[in-house]
Amino acid sequence: MKARDVMKKPDSMSVTDWELLKAQTSSLERIKGDAKADVEAYLSNPEGRSTGAGPDPTVPTGLPTLLLTTIGRKSGEQRITPLVFLQHGKDMVVVGSLAGYDNHPAWYLNLEKNPGCQVQLDRNKMAANARDATTKERETLWPALTTMFPNWGYFQAQTDRPFPIVILSPTGPA
């Protein structure tokens, strides 16, 4: 991100929400720690999370969330990441925003090396293949993605790195 300390609050966001967003994205360590906690919470009580109606009223997003399991490109070990997603027919669409930091998220780099992955929606686990959206798909999907989660548009404006838009296509049960 060009300069996190000089980010300006979007007009559409309340001061309270802005302060929360800044705190939640203040460092990559904070993002990783929150993601780990989100995975644990998802796994312990997955009902409703894929629709954004999860069981925990303290989870502020209310956004549809999946768990993506990739194979670490360096470690070869399974890595689980919670991601907000857009259902697009049978496919799920995720965005590699990493809150506008200048590097791609690790899960995306893992998928570049091995596009075979696993997706969990609530208790339903499935095998999937990942691919980058085509230019035409990006043009169609980006407005829908930023309507669902406006922070993606805001974060994209904070970096020169184009966010990957990844389509996860189910291939069968996990």
Report on the architecture of this protein.
The protein contains five helices and seven strands. The protein is of the alpha+beta class. It has a single domain (4-173), classed as Pnp Oxidase, Chain A (Roll). The chain has a seven-stranded antiparallel beta sheet with strand order 2-1-5-6-7-4-3, with helices on both faces. A hairpin with a 2-residue loop joins strand 5 (116-121) and strand 6 (124-132). The chain starts with 14 loop residues before the first helix and ends with a strand.
Short description:
By secondary structure, the chain is an alpha+beta fold. The protein contains 5 helices and 7 strands.
CATH homologous superfamily heading: Electron Transport, Fmn-binding Protein, Chain A
- Strand tally: 7
Class, according to the CATH hierarchy?
Mainly Beta
From the helix content, strand content and strand pairing, which structural class follows? alpha+beta
Keywords, separated by commas or semicolons:
174 residues; alpha+beta; Pnp Oxidase, Chain A; seven-stranded antiparallel beta sheet; 5 helices; 7 strands; globular
